[in-house]
Fold:
Amino acid sequence: MVGLWATGLEIPSSTIIRAVLMTCVGCFVASLGEAKLTFIGTLLMLGNLVAESTRLITTQMLLVGKNIHPIRMLSLFSPSATITLLFLASFEEIPRIREKQLYLALFNHPFQFVLAASLGVICNILGLMIIKVASATSAKLLAAVRGPIIVFAGVAFFSEHVSFMECAGYILALSGFVIYNVEKARQSTPGPGSLPTVKPQIG
Structure:
């Protein structure tokens, strides 16, 4: 959200800011009971945060500012993502796959692999569509509240145990997400006599 504001892609209202903070605090509270922080882990987490934020901001710049279609966008960054993953996997994962002949799972369970790959592509396209029609902040919040939704589904259907602190954090995060979406819907609904808004163009 801060990055989008700094680049001029989005100017959040005070309600949006409070809703995002609620979601962030809720996720933090929910993870307190499970958190085991180390110096290396903290550095990796911060690096992931910076990389993910940069990716979302540049993605929104291209999707909105340059008006690139989500499928076209996916075809543009997929080759570089594949090369990066193969390079990183070559140090540990690929030698282990060869040594233990794990690649045989592809032939033993082809349907599952094809289904997982297809759903992965669909998820990526939907994520890009969310960024294009809403914002990168919406996509990030949706990813953040996905965990609480899965946890509550586990509690409802599989009787999984959740501590009071985790439950309170998840409820706070989901409340912030609901407030965020209500405010975004209110902003997208023009009032009587109002002029249509124009999204900022980059380039």
